[in-house]
Amino acid sequence: MNFILLGPPGAGKGTQAKKIVEKFGIVHLSTGDIFREAKKSDKVISKILLSGQLVPDKIVVDVIKKRLERDDVKKGFLLDGFPRTLKQAEELDALVESKNIKINAVFLIDINFEEAVNRIAGRRVCKCGANYNIATLSPKKAGKCDSCGSELFQRSDDEKNVFRERLAVYERQTKPLIEYYKEVGLLIVVDGLKDKENVFRQISSHALAFMQ
Ligand code: AMP
Questions:
Q1: CA 191/CA 199 separation, integer angstroms
Q2: pTM of the predicted protein model
Q3: Active-site residue 123, yes or no?
Q4: Ligand 1 within 6 A of CB of 163
Q5: What tens digit of pLDDT does each residue of 117-156 get?
């Protein structure tokens, strides 16, 4: 099964993605993770991420193209953070068609603007991948990860003026994808305001239906 996760920054895509790939035994393809890794050695990517803007379509599509050539995606994959523009969605359509595979569903984790702002402002992360929120999901010991004890930090692109830009970019460039996938009958909207276990149940129940 091949799925796409769509939603604004702060919707919980990363959290849900981890749970989905674990449950369904498919591969997690996060362009955000790929570019966060790339930014360590690539000054251009680093600058783009710190501005809250999108990496150019051509670069992103090439990354995904290469990634989809690897054997592990044959067991199914979950695209998290891709596509993010209409151009990327069209390129993905052509790519999956050429590979004779299909996207089974696009899950939109639906949250409103205020919720997105609150969640990103409070988000703290750990180098081990754990996520917290100082308002709603604080660690047992302030500033320390429950799992590995490391110091928590704020993602640099979560800082105030950058996340405002990321939300604006989402509204402008990514939101049109909702209509795009609705028209082709792939869109499944889940209520992202519910707690994460509930959101996961909503997604899982739809995903399971594709397995039968
Ligand atoms: P994310 O963790 O998905 O919010 O991604 C972090 C940053 O990586 C974004 O703000 C973009 O700068 C870049 N990025 C991730 N995915 C894409 C994409 N599909 N297209 C363009 N830029 C992307």
A1: 7
A2: 0.90
A3: yes
A4: no
A5: 888 888 899 999 888 988 888 999 999 999 999 999 998 8
Q: Active site includes 155?
A: yes
Residue with tokens 């939109």: 108
Q: Three-class SS of residue 11?
A: coil
**Cα gap 205→143, rounded to integer Å:** 35
Distance between CA atoms of residues 204 and 11, nearest Å: 17
Domains of the chain as residue ranges with CATH: 2-111+173-209 (3.40.50.300)
Structure tokens at 212: 């039968």
Q: Hey, CA dihedral for 11, 43, 57, 1, is it positive or negative?
A: negative
Measuring CA to CA, which residue among 28, 19, 22, 16 is closest to residue 79?
28
Query: Which residue's C-alpha comes closest to atom 1 of ligand 1?
Result: 32
